[in-house]
Amino acid sequence: MALMIRLRKQGRTNRQTFRLVVTDGKTPRDGKYLEKLGWYLPCEKTNNIHVDEERVNFWLSKGACFTEKAEKFVGKAAPGVVKELHAKQLAKRIKECAKRRALRKKKGKAIVVSSAIKAPAAKATEKKAAPKAPAKKTVKKAPAKAKTAEKPAETPSAETQAET
Predict the structure, then answer these.
(1) CB 21 within 8 A of CB 73
(2) What pTM did the predictor assign?
(3) For the chain, which domains are there?
(4) Do 56 and 81 touch, CB atoms closer than 8 A?
């Protein structure tokens, strides 16, 4: 069961109210809910938002997730809850990244060790060989094309002379 903290629409036409509720992710927007966590009255100018921070923290610890609108709503009414949630998520991501780096580093060492075991003699011969001087870069020029128009007329070739 995926728990969601979201807004539930109530009220009448042109006078809507919203409740912040915890519900299963599969239930409809205005369906039944597990617990009411707060309310929002957009028509009133003052005192229009209420959130029970303790209960929100309780449900977040149980694995509930905010919807985008509910997260904005709670961020206005109780910014400490959202900041704490983001800090926990960031710490979790950092921990997972460190774990992945450690695994990659471990795999990299294992590959180096296995290649050292397979060919220790080859590495020894490489060390004994004298270092070579760095090779100079040479640029090869393309051969010039022979000009056929400038050839002087020669005497008849041997084939033409043999025919006569």
Answers:
(1) no
(2) 0.56
(3) 3-78 (3.30.1320.10)
(4) yes
